[in-house]
Design brief:
The protein contains three helices and eight strands, in the order βββαβββαββα. The chain has about 150 residues and is α/β, with parallel strands linked by helices. It is globular.
Length: about 150
């Protein structure tokens, strides 16, 4: 499972001109589910994300988590994070989980995150989405659950 985490002052996602999710100060998360990912992978990744100290404290040092600042999240599915671009110029996405499994883990991620932070907005799985955000910092971190997981 791969995630691109951006510290934001605000973010939103639209599908066909309809706003499907928003967040204020907090994290915009692009989430890609890989073939073979499990709920354990998701749990480890989410636990790391909500405790990641990337918000400034009173001394201007990145020392607070999204939970510490009562921040929000916007989670958007993004299978293109699993792109294989080694050969040629047209990436393939064979490393991405099948849609049914990816959707299940994406929705489970949102459900669990909702119990950890004050608000979780989200996109619509499989839809063509327009995402807008104000990246605060900018602070952007790429995470891979394989780095957090014990050897498979």
């Amino acid at each position: 499972m791969k995630a691109v985490i951006q510290r934001v002052s605000q973010a939103r996602v639209e599908v066909d001109g309809e706003v499907t999710g928003t967040c204020g100060r907090g994290l915009m998360i692009l989430l890609g589910v890989a073939a073979g990912d499990t709920e354990d992978d998701m749990d480890r990744l989410l636990a790391k994300i909500v405790k990641l100290r990337i918000f400034e404290d009173e001394n201007g040092k990145m020392n607070r988590s999204v939970q510490d600042v009562n921040g929000e999240m916007l989670v958007v599915s993004q299978f293109t994070l699993l792109a294989n671009y080694r050969h040629g110029n047209r990436p393939d996405f064979l490393q991405a989980a099948p849609p049914r499994e990816a959707k299940r883990l994406y929705e489970r991620f949102i459900e669990k995150a909702s119990g950890m932070v004050s608000h979780v907005g989200h996109g619509r799985f499989g839809a063509d989405m327009q995402v807008s955000l104000v990246n605060d910092g900018p602070v952007t971190i790429v995470m891979d659950s394989d780095i957090l997981s014990p050897a498979r």
